[in-house]
Amino acid sequence: MALQPDDLLDARGLPCPLPLLKAKQALSRLAPGQLLEIQATDAGSWRDFETFVAQSPHEMPAREERGEVYHYWIRKGASPS
Known about the structure:
This protein has 2 helices and 4 strands, in the order βαβαββ.
């Protein structure tokens, strides 16, 4: 994966909905355009992050499953005024 994240969130071992909540907190600390990589082991996170990005100004340029770990890359979008 050629994406270079600006921050990495290790949410492995956290049950739903904690990976998404921690990701929202991490995104709030980033500037628009910066990239957050999230690692999670909760299978429900696949759907959770897809829904979150669809309902937000953020983009998910990539996601993949490596063994038992799900990797998500979310680029922070501009906050609505």
